[in-house]
Automatic annotation (TrEMBL), chains A, B:
Cited InterPro entries: CheY-like_superfamily (IPR011006), Sig_transdc_resp-reg_C-effctor (IPR016032), Sig_transdc_resp-reg_receiver (IPR001789), Tscrpt_reg_LuxR_C (IPR000792), WalR-like (IPR039420)
Transmembrane segments: none
GO MF, any single term: DNA binding
Organism name: Streptomyces olivoverticillatus
Residue list for modification 4-aspartylphosphate: 57
Protein's name in the database: Two-component system response regulator DesR
Keywords, ordered alphabetically: DNA-binding, Phosphoprotein
CDD domains: LuxR_C_like
GO BP term (any one): regulation of DNA-templated transcription
Domain Response regulatory: 6-122
Pfam families assigned: GerE, Response_reg
Record bears the keyword Lipid metabolism: no
PANTHER family linked: TRANSCRIPTIONAL REGULATORY PROTEIN DESR, TWO-COMPONENT RESPONSE REGULATOR
Domain called HTH luxR-type: residue spans: 137-202
Length: 204, 204
DNA sequence: GGCCTGCTGTGACATTTGTCTTCCCATGCC
DNA sequence: GGCATGGGAAGACAAATGTCACAGCAGGCC
């Protein structure tokens, strides 16, 4: 391995971002060429600096890291994507794979894993926690339809049926139907539990 | 300053904990003498290694970092406490001060702040983000009574009135009364919004 | 063409939730 | 003693929520 690995790092928490950048910078074969704290900056920055690998958090201000990953796949196909997230949710992993990510790492693990994962991804490997992969397979695909997700997502902060109806441009009666369907499919008793369950599985 | 600053680090996210430990370890005058990922281990570890300062996250498995801080105040008074948290919630800051913390840092800021804050706390200063202090003062104290907090906390995951009543050993009618009071005091429209608001302010 | 699925909408119904008023009882304060 | 305060509880009522059955319409599949 002769040349240095160029890394783009997207992470919203300043202290985490700075710490990871410093740590990876200590490795001789790794160089951080861009740091962003907002999902909307990922693609423009990547196009500007052309990194070998993008290290993306999922939950960011602006666009989600998963959306950005899908975009990078088409706009900068030579750039690998390694998702780095707090939550090892089955649905997240599934969506990451569909978005063309080469790896999926949870922030719970030891720091040493990170540089190792970067190198393995660059070597062409797929890096995925085996336990998480098993969970994603056993959990099955997302049972919620697009509309059900929309409505449930609009219900997160305690919005009333009328609020949700206005937000998604549907009749209040229809909103209640979708909520009822989502509650049924998630096996829960009310929308609050349904939201919890959907979040837990990475279905939103 | 002749001797080295001994630091105990409590943080649940493995990667964050490792990264912070490595970073602080790079400073010549700082040594990490203990790392814990569980709130229940803070006090025992502190008593064992007797650090000069404890760097505590608030939201941990086991005991909250705030509870541990209050305990350290009495069990190991010579140990300063610096709270390091994701969420700059007014209620958290207030409770941290009441628990005898010497500083309150949010994880959003740059990493350089951390070592600086540690040194300043050890020098006897109080380290608090001025904007956050202002917010905490303007927000006023927690308006919720103990019971209202209990009931609201039991309502977080979509529990029904009956569930909550069973959990806190109250009559369902009383639970509804408290929920109504909490909704009124938070200026919200339903329990879901009330829970959000209370969380936001660090009142739970 | 038939069949299924998904999206949108209604109306009716039972249940849950939120609000208000009232009550009892203990505590503490003057 | 007199009196406010706060926790706990009940009942009554209106509003919101969850369920169900049904219906029209589009698209995809065999």
């Amino acid at each position: 391995m002769s040349s240095v690995i160029k890394v783009l790092l997207a992470e919203d928490q300043g202290m985490m971002r700075g710490a990871l950048a410093l740590l990876l910078g200590l490795e001789e074969d790794i160089e951080i060429v861009a740091q962003v704290g907002d999902g909307d900056e990922i693609v423009p920055q990547a196009l500007a600096v052309r990194p070998d690998i993008a290290l993306l958090d999922i939950e960011l201000p602006g666009r989600s890291g998963l959306d950005a990953a899908a975009d990078l796949r088409t706009r900068l196909p030579e750039c690998r994507v390694l998702i780095l997230t707090t939550f090892g949710r089955p649905g997240y992993l599934r969506r990451a794979m569909e978005a063309g990510a080469s790896g999926f790492l949870v922030k719970d693990g030891p720091v040493e894993d990170l540089a190792a994962a970067v190198r393995r991804v660059l070597a062409g490997e797929r890096v995925i926690d085996p336990a998480l992969a098993a969970a994603a397979l056993s959990a099955g695909p997302n049972p919620l339809t697009q509309r059900e997700r929309d409505v449930l997502a609009a219900a997160v902060d305690g919005a009333t049926v009328a609020d949700i109806a206005a937000k998604v441009h549907l009749s209040p009666a229809t909103v209640r139907n979708y909520l009822s369907a989502a509650i049924g499919k998630t096996g829960t008793r009310n929308r609050m539990e349904a939201v919890r369950a959907a979040r837990q599985n990475g279905w939103l």
